[in-house]
Write a structure and sequence with these properties.
Layout (H helix, E strand, L loop, with lengths): L1 E10 L5 E4 L7 E4 L2 H21 L20 E8 L9
Length: 91
């Protein structure tokens, strides 16, 4: 199952790039480059969704990208992760 959530990408004060998920409170990923931040965000999203589903909880509603307010230097990217629902499941 493929799932996507928007992430706001910006340069952090420490000089790294940070991907924040508005729909996943407290969830963010960092990297030395935008590509690294996105790669880390994919892994974070995969782990978050898997843990949520294993706990039989509902996933957070996905915010419409157009409704996300950005500050200067920020951009929104849809981060997608392939979630394996059970061992041997392959889409």
């Amino acid at each position: 199952m493929m799932i996507s959530y928007p992430a706001v990408i910006r340069r952090a004060e420490n000089g790294k790039y940070r991907s924040d998920f508005p729909d996943l409170p407290g969830s963010y990923a960092e990297g030395d480059t935008v590509d690294e931040a996105v790669s880390e965000a994919i892994e974070l999203l995969r782990d978050f969704v898997t843990a949520t589903l294993l706990d039989w909880e509902d996933l957070p509603k996905i915010t419409d990208v157009e409704s996300i307010e950005l500050k200067e230097g920020e951009e929104v990217r849809m981060i997608s992760a392939n979630i394996r629902l059970y061992t041997g499941y392959d889409e």
